[in-house]
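User: I'm putting together notes for a lab meeting next week and I want to include a structural view of one of the chains we've been expressing. I don't have a solved structure, so I'd like a prediction I can at least talk through. The sequence is below, exactly as it appears in our construct file.
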Amino acid sequence: MENAKLKPIGTLLFEDVKSIEKEEKRIKTGTDRLNSFVEVAQGLLGPLDNEQRHELWKRGRKFIEEQIKSQYPFPNGSDKFNLEALGMDPEPLYKFYRDHGQYWHGINFRIDEEGIFIPEEKQSGIETHKYFIETERQQKILYLAEKFQQLFEQADELKAVPSSELDRRTCKLLLGEMMKYEKGTIVPDVERIAMDKQFK
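Assistant: Thanks for the context. Below is the predicted structure for the 200-residue chain, given as structure tokens.
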């Protein structure tokens, strides 16, 4: 291990990989369902340009209702009368939105030149699972934790404190929460340093 150095504030400490993978899967599902929603909507409303697709994504049912009403042959007639006159049944589209709209909620998209929704590179749902050094206190605690790791590795090499005699309990008693016992040695608990309020 190289010598411990004080890392700058803003340095990535830890990524919750499982949560990020789960969010990436949600983004893929949301993207697929939103693009399917556009196809279903176009089956009812006719072709939609990119601006209309954007409105459909952002406003959902309200946009659909406005588009249908703009086609009413009898503006003073009832919805039922006008829908029958147009030969339209928006209920399957509304149901699709009710059943699937939650999947693309909170995802940032752009629309490509072919009118397909593509998730933006930076997604807040992914960024919330990345933890950075935020404070000077965290910065110093991480530095100390890395320094302790170096000292224990040196002591182990000299057989002064063999790693075989270390365990989780000893680690916690000696070094508190900033270190953890892992694979026969003591390492900084960057996940805890990143997430635990006591270190901020």
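A couple of points you could mention at the meeting. The radius of gyration is 28 Å. The CA atoms of residues 66 and 72 lie 10 Å apart.

User: Perfect, that's what I needed.
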